[in-house]
Each structure stands twice: as structure tokens, then as C-alpha cells.
Amino acid sequence: MKNNILKLLIAVLLIAFVSLQINAQKDQTISKKLKWSERMALSIMMQHKESYMIDDATTPKWDYVHGLVLISFDELNKKYPNQKYSVYSKTYVDKLVQEDGTIDTYKLDSYNIDMVVAGRLLFDLYTTTKEAKYLKALQTLRKQIEEQPRTASGGFWHKKIYPNQMWLDGLYMGEPFYAQYTVTFEDGKNLDDVAKQFQLIQKNARDSKTGLFYHGWDESKQMPWANKTTGTSPNFWSRSLGWYAMALVDVLDYFPKDHPKQKELVSYLNQLANTLVKFQDKSGLWYQVTDKGSVGGNYLEASGTAMFTYAFAKGVNKGYLPKKFKTAAKKAFSGMTKHLIKVGQNGEVTITQACAVAGLGGNPYRDGSFEYYVNERKKDNDPKATGPFILAALELNK
User: Fold this and answer.
1) Quick one: which H or E segment has residue 194?
2) What is the distance, to the nearest Å, from the Cα of residue 34 to the centroid of all Cα atoms in its chain?
3) 341 close to 351: Cβ distance less than 8 angstroms
4) Contact between 265 and 248 (Cβ < 8 Å)
5) Is 28 a domain residue?
6) How many helices (H) and strands (E) does the chain have?
7) Which of 117, 221, 241, 397 is 20 to 30 A from 332, alpha carbon to alpha carbon?
């Protein structure tokens, strides 16, 4: 009898606890008076209670999407200091970086350059705490850069499983970390090597007719998707161009103005920005396949637009780009809030029309065709859109 009463009491308490949790969640609202950067960050926290859950992950994993979003949280915390932002970022790192500096789920011998970008979260943590585990984790990722397989001309392979290939994505995944590390710990001795990665992309992935960059370049020209003369993939994908644009504005943070390669990188950014505005839609947005407009299922896409907006706004703020690009960035941000943003009953922000994923090769095989890009699935609040949206909002003070 006593056992039955105890079980009943426990059941009642559980129901009451769940009810309280649900009511608390219902009562949680996000004020429309906040800046868009904070509204998006709070929406992510509402959607993903713990930071490792970003991108609907069910267990903690070291991954580039978490790195991207939490970099934006760190920047948000610098602009609008709030412990909940810094804690949200730090708890992700501390779930994965162990006391001996090893990184759970990370495999150095995969030589996947995507896995380097989350290492950018470690610099400030090490600076502020001086905990050895953060330094050891940084050194592990630096070791990957040191050992990363390269093309014959010296470009980092995107992954070990993608030999001789450079993807635009990889410039963002690896180079800002590499630049920050070499400036922080090596007196900048490898900045020329950082610049070389961009030089190779400029030389080999840029289309002379449009000025746009192809998603990938296979130096061996062996991949089925690769042009047999140039080695480039067949199409221009806005998000890959966005990764490249963000890579440029972020690595420039670590190039002194008197460095021989600094002006060169600034010229690359200007070339790209001048090209991209030619393809900006009247809505302010950019299409999934950058140069094809509204044909054959092509659509105005969130992540590429957010990335371009951030790169333009930061480029102007830092003095790399003329002021006209701030106007283009404002037009793009306005287009996102008008056409791609939904606001829920609790004030939560959802960004729509984001391509979930796209790549080249692999299994199942991805051929880089127009049809491939426009038919990849879309995902609301995809982290490749939310992170850059926060960064763009911060640069525009929106």
C-alpha cells in the first residue's frame, strides 16, 4: 500500500514538474525591441537548450556548424556582454575538450579542414583562463594544419577523402584559425602560407567571364565533376562564395597593414564584392545558384545572402571596401527580414529558405549540376544561416 502511494506521489510530482517546464517555456518571450542579433541568438537558445544540440545534434560532437554559430555568440557577447551568451559558447567547448586537451569526436587523421574552424573558440578561452587544455587543443588543430595533405601547388585538400581538391568552403574552415594561430603563437611567420591559399583560389577557381568563383577545384582534373581543362566544378553556389567572402574579411583581422600580402587580400575582397553586387536581386537577396536567377527551381537563399551581408558590412567597417557596399549590405539585411524571417508568438525568430547542405563527389554522388544545387533540401534556422545573420546584424548594428 505504501509503495503504491509513493509511486502515485512520484507520478504527481513528475506531472507537476513537466507542467512547470512547459509553462516556463510558454512564458519565455523574446522582445521585438532587442537588436536582431540578440533576437536570433535567444531564438537559437530557445530551440536548442544546450549548445551541442545546434543543428539538431543528439550527442556532443566537434563540428564546423557549432563553431560558426558560437563564434557569432562570442562576437555578440563582446558587443552586448551577457553571461548567458558566453556560457552557451563555453559549455560546448567544455563538453568536448577534455582535461588532457584531447577533443572528443575529433579525428586528426581524417584531415577534414571543416573540423578546424571550431578551434577559433579556444583562443579567447585560453587567453582569459590560461587553462592548459585549451592550449593543447589549439596545438592539436595546428598539427592538423601542419600535416594537412596539399595539392601539387600547395593548396590544402578539403578532406583526406577528397584528394587534390580545394573547395571555397575550406578557406573559411581553415585560414582564419591558421592566421590567428600564427600571429598569436608564431609571430606571424606563416601568414604568407595563409595568403597562398587565397592566391590559388583566385588563380584557379575564378571565372574570367563573370568574376564569380566555382564551388570546387580539382588540381588533378580527375573527378567526374571537374572540367577537364580547368579542374573547376560546373556551377557557382552562393554559400560557397559566402564562405570565401567571410574567410577574406576574417583573415584580414590578422594581417598587419604593412604585410606584403595585405593589400593583395583586400584587392581580392574588392574584386569579389564588385562581382557579387551585379547578381544581387532587387529584393536585396541572392539566389542559390548565384548567376541563374529565377529559373528552373532556383530560389533566393538565406545563408549565402547572410554571409555576403556580413562580409560587405565588415569590409566597409574595417576600411577594406568602399561605403557603397554598406548600402548593399543594408539592402540585403532588409531583404532577409522582409522576405525570409518569420517571428513566432513568443518572439522567436526563424530564418527560412536556407540550403541545408551541398557538396561535391561523395556517396551518394554529387555532380555540382544546377539541378543538384536547387534540389538539395532546405532547413529553417539552419546554422549556416543563423550564425552569419547574427554576425551581419552586429556589423550593421541592426
Assistant:
1) helix 191-204
2) 23
3) yes
4) yes
5) no
6) 14, 6
7) 117
| 11 found inside a domain | no
Please tell me the distance from the alpha carbon of residue 278 to that of residue 262, in angstroms, as a whole number: 25
Q: 236 in a domain, yes or no?
A: yes
Write down the pTM of the prediction. Answer: 0.93
C-alpha distances in Å from residue 209, one per residue of 183, 261, 274, 280: 36, 25, 14, 17
Q: What is the tens place of the pLDDT at every residue in 38-95?
A: 999 999 999 999 999 999 999 999 999 999 999 999 999 999 999 999 999 999 999 9
Q: 4 lies in a domain? A: no
Structural domain containing residue 276: 36-396
Contacts of 240 (CB under 8 A, 6+ apart): 167, 168, 169, 213, 215, 216, 358
Residue 377 three-state SS: coil
Q: What is the 3-state secondary structure (H, E, C) of 348-373?
A: CEEECCCECCCCCECCCCECCCHHHH
Q: Which residues are marked as active site?
A: 169
The proportion of the chain whose per-residue pLDDT surpasses 90, expressed as a percent, equals 93
What is the dihedral angle through the alpha carbons of 179, 132, 141, 248, rounded to the nearest 10 degrees?
A: -20
Q: Rounded to an integer, what distance in angstroms lies between the CA atom of residue 352 and that of residue 331?
A: 18
Domain at 62, CATH number: 1.50.10.10
- Number of alpha carbons in the 13 Å side-chain half-sphere of residue 154: 10
